[in-house]
Amino acid sequence: MAPKITGYKTHAWEDIRFPTSLSGDGTDAMNTDCDYSSAYVKLYTDSDLTGYGMTFTIGRGNDIVCKAIEELAKRLIGKDVEEIFANMGNTWDYLSSDSQLRWIGPEKGVIHIALGAVDNALWDMYARSRNKPLWKLVVDMTPEEIVNATAFRYITDAITREEALAMLKEKAATRAEREAKVRELGYPAYVTSAGWLGYSDEKVARLTREAVEAGFNHFKMKVGADRDSDLRRGKIIRSIIDDPQYLPPGLKPRDPNGPDLVGKNAGPTGSVLMIDANQVWDVPQAIEYVKSLAEIKPWFIEEPTAPDDILGHAAIRKALKPYDIGVATGEHAHNRMVFKQLLQAEAIDVCQIDSCRLAGVSEVLSVLLMAAKFGVPVCPHAGGVGLCEYVIHLSLIDYIAVSGTMERNVLEFVDHLHEHFLYPCSINKNGRYNVPSNAKEGYSIEMHESSIAEYEFPNGSYWKSVRGANTAA
Questions:
Q1: Quick one: CA torsion of 277, 279, 285, 286, rounded to 10 degrees?
Q2: pLDDT digits (tens, 9 = 90+) for 13-55
Q3: Mean pLDDT over residues 127-144, rounded?
C-alpha cells in the first residue's frame, strides 16, 4: 500500500528568520532592511517518507505566509502519495482551486507563495520517493509526463499542451548528451554578492576581486538610490572585471564577441555587468536613469519598474534598445500569466523565474516552456535563503529537457546562508554551479534542525538572546 500524507509541520515553529539586516546583505533601492526568512513546511506520511518545502520572505509577514501554508497543507491530509505523484499538474490544480482560499489571491500574493512552498514540498517528496534529485526526476520523465505535470490553465493562447509536447519530444533524444555535458562543466552562474547597496566601496572592490578569482564572469550590482553612487560603484566593478591582471592564473580573457557573450556588452576580458533596480522607478524615470548609466555598459536592467506593469516594461525595453541595454524581470512576477504577457508583448530580453514566487515546480514548468517557445533565455532569480538550492534544479530541467541551451543563460548565485541546508549548492572553480547528485536530497531544501532551533522566530535561541540583550539595555 502506498503511503498517505498524515500531517504537516509549519506555523510558528517553522517561521525561520536570519538577521541579515545587521550586515547589509540583501540591501537594494527598494528593500533596505532585509532579514532573510523562510516559511518552511514539512509534509509527513505514515511511512518514513517526508517532503520539505519553503518560500522566501524578508522578515515581517513570514508568519502570515506560514498560516497560509497551513491552510493549504490541510487539503493533502489522507491523500495517497502515488495518486498525487501520478499527475502533478492535476495535483497543482487541486491545491489552487479551493474557492475560499483562491478568493484572497487569486493566484497571487501570500496564498500563491504559500502554494509554492507546499507544491515544492510535494515535488521534494516525489523525488525522494524515487531516490533522485528533483532535476533528475523531471528530466527522466517522458514528454507526456512533463506535460501532465505542468500548470496550463490561462496560458493556452501562448502555448498549448500539443505544442509543449512537440517541443519536449524534439529535445528528448539528446537529453543524455546535455546531461553529461552539464555534469562535466557545471551550469553557468553570475554573482550578486558584491553589489549590495549597503556595502562600502572598499567592500564592493574586495568582493568583486574575490568573485573574479573564483572564476565568475557575470556580475550584478544594485542601483536606483543615488545616480552618482551607482556610477561610482559601477566604475569600481568595471575597473576590476575588465582588467586581465585580476583573472585567475592560467585563465585567458573570454572573447566578448563569442556566441555566449555577443550582445551582452561584455568588456575586454569577456566579463558582463548587470544592474538591478528592484522596482524603484516609474517608467519615464527608469528610462532616463538607465540612460545615464550607459557608460558602465550593463547587459540589462532588472526590475526597472512595477513587476506586473507589462506595457511599462515594453516601453522601457523599446527606449533602451538604441543603447544596447536589455530588460530583465520576473523575480516578483506573481504567476505564469504575467510571464505570458511579458513574452507576448516582447517586453523582456531575459526571463527571471523565482522558485517560490511562482507556485512551485508545476507552474515553473509552464514558464520554462513559454520562454523556450518565445526564444527568451531563462536566468532565474536566486539569493535569499534556500533559493540557490532550489533554482539549480530548475535551470538543469530547462537546459536538459526544455530549451536545450545554456549558452547564454546564467543562474544567480549569492554566497549567503547555504550552511543551514543539508544539501547546499556549490560552485566549481570556473564559477559554475555543480550539479546536485545526492539521491537523497530531493529538492535540496531540507534544513538542519539545529538551524531551525536557533533561528525560529520568535522563540529560537538567537531571537531569545536578542530580546534578552534589548531587555538588559
A1: 50
A2: 589 999 988 876 656 666 667 899 999 999 999 999 999 999 9
A3: 98
Inform me whether the pLDDT recorded for 11 exceeds 60: no
19/25 Cα distance (integer angstroms): 9
b/e per residue, 360-385, with b = 16+ CB within 10 A? bbbbbbbbbbbbbbbebbbbbbbbbb
* Cβ(61)–Cβ(441) below 8 Å: no
Q: What is the Cα gyration radius of the chain?
A: 21
215 CB-side CA count, 13 A: 14
Q: How confident is the model at residue 12 (pLDDT cuts 50, 70, 90)?
A: very low
Distance CA 97, CA 218 (A): 41
Asked whether the whole model's pTM tops 0.90, one would answer yes
Calculate the CA 221 to chain-centre distance.
17
pLDDT tens string 435-455: 999 999 999 999 999 999 999
Instruction: With beta carbons less than 8 A apart as the criterion, state whether 64 and 37 touch.
Output: no
Q: 162: Cβ–Cβ under 8 A, 6 or more apart, which residues?
A: none
Q: How far is CA 155 from the centre of its chain?
A: 21
Instruction: For residue 464, give the C-alpha cell.
Output: 531569545
User: In whole angstroms, what separates CA 317 from the centre of its chain?
Assistant: 22
Catalytic residues: 222, 381
